[in-house]
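Example A, followed by Example B.
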Amino acid sequence: MATEVPSDEFIKANYGALAKGFAASLSSNPKSTEFIAPGSNMEALIEHWADDSSRSEESNVKAPLVLLAEAIAEKGDSSITVEKHPASGEQKVVFDSANNFYVTVVQSGDKLLISGIGSVLGQHITEQFEKQISLTASN
């Protein structure tokens, strides 16, 4: 199904379902791409994180996607702001303005999908994952 740039109203009405659904889908399948836009930067990031996901299974730590879902779900949809991403033109949903954490989203039918994440958020997820791995290795 083709994707389109969602309206601010659509995002505000559907972001909570995205946050909860993304977390729920990953809790049952840590490699789920149900809430990821096909062909997006996020899909490419998942491929990049694939080795980390395998390492997480071996080390019994949370995979990067699970850490991302937890970060998104933790803030919920009460304090989000929506703006146009200057480079991609996609909608940018800032869910933690203090840390500049955001995801970019697209609409596919009546569903909101994640198409990318901000670099600061990506770095935070990677650091959290590496921290878990190093703590596990030192035990």
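Example B, a separate protein, is given below in the same form.
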Amino acid sequence: MYSLASTAGLWRKVILSRPVIEERGLTELMSYPRYSLVERLDLYQLEISQPRLRNIIEQTMSMEGLRKISLYEHVLTNIPADLLARAFSRLEEVVVGGTYLNKNS
């Protein structure tokens, strides 16, 4: 049973615990390879510090299964534009609003 539950492909649709992400970021979760296959990351209205948010965005680049991220209500103007471009360009959907980004950001 353990080997079946450890099959990475079964973890693609899992919904990650938002309070854990808010409190600890993705570092702990990313130590388990199966979580790199998660397809969707919803950070909507979580209270995440700027340094932790930057770290989370960096870590999403190693999440090979990630297809969608929701960053609604997070200030992204302090995150380097090149980091946002690298992290977002590989995704199918990026949900942003209330981020204070504009077309010059």
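On Example B: Residues 50-60 form the longest helix (11 residues).
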